[in-house]
Amino acid sequence: MNSPEYGIQAFLWWRPEVASRDLQMIREMGFTWCKVNFAWRDIEGAAKGAFDWSRTDRIVEQAAHERIDLVVRVDHQPAWTGGGFPTNGPPDNLQDLADFLIALASRYKGRIRAYEVWNEPNQAILWAPQPDPAAFADLYAATRTALEHIDPAARVVAGGIAPAPDWVPRMLAARPNL
Question: At what angle do helices 94-108 and 54-65 cross, to 10 degrees?
Fold first, then answer.
């Protein structure tokens, strides 16, 4: 990577016309990267090996058209993987996530420059039932190995850590209707 390179996070998933506009705005602001979430359950939610690439194909194509590099955040396990579904938690079998990332990286090799494995795993709401640093390290190691094998040019980064790990549970306890 060149330095400095800057990016911005955008939600490009559901509305193509808004995604196109947002990517154009990102480019016009001078950013060269966009972080976007590819929720595993939205791509391989029906069953293992049953992929719906329709939205990801569009996002990757639109980003390439705007000359924006992608960092793709992958988390949100499908129900069939366990992991405390419907909350966000690690799959019961790490190989299921590794297999998904192999399929993802194989499809977009050379078109996705970076992958973020999970997000804020120190938050109970994002790593159910409770954060587990050792389990996250195991998940990251397994997925990084899989991704680097398929697309060695892509960066693989660990999910960012939230600055206040107990903030969300306290907020939800104070406002249970959120």
Answer: 40
Quick one: angle between helices 94-108 and 133-150, nearest 10? Answer: 30
Give rounded-to-5 percent helix, strand, coil for the chain. Answer: 40, 10, 45
- Judge contact between 121 and 97, C-beta under 8 A: no
CA–CA separation, 34 vs 68, rounded Å? 7
Angle at 88 between CA 151 and CA 50, to 5 degrees: 55
CB atoms within 10 A of CB 57: 12
Integer CA distances (angstroms), 43 to 15, 48, 55, 137, 156, in order: 16, 10, 8, 24, 20
Whether the model clears a pTM of 0.85, i.e. scores above it, the answer is yes
Rounded CA separation 12/8 (Å): 12
Q: What is the pLDDT of residues 30-85, one digit of tens each?
A: 999 999 999 999 999 999 999 999 999 999 999 999 999 999 999 999 999 998 88
CB distance 13 to 37 below 8 Å: yes
Spatial strand order in the sheet of 114-117: 7-9, 33-37, 69-74, 114-117, 155-158
For residue 92, the one-letter residue type is D
Half-sphere exposure of 134 (CA within 13 A, CB side): 0
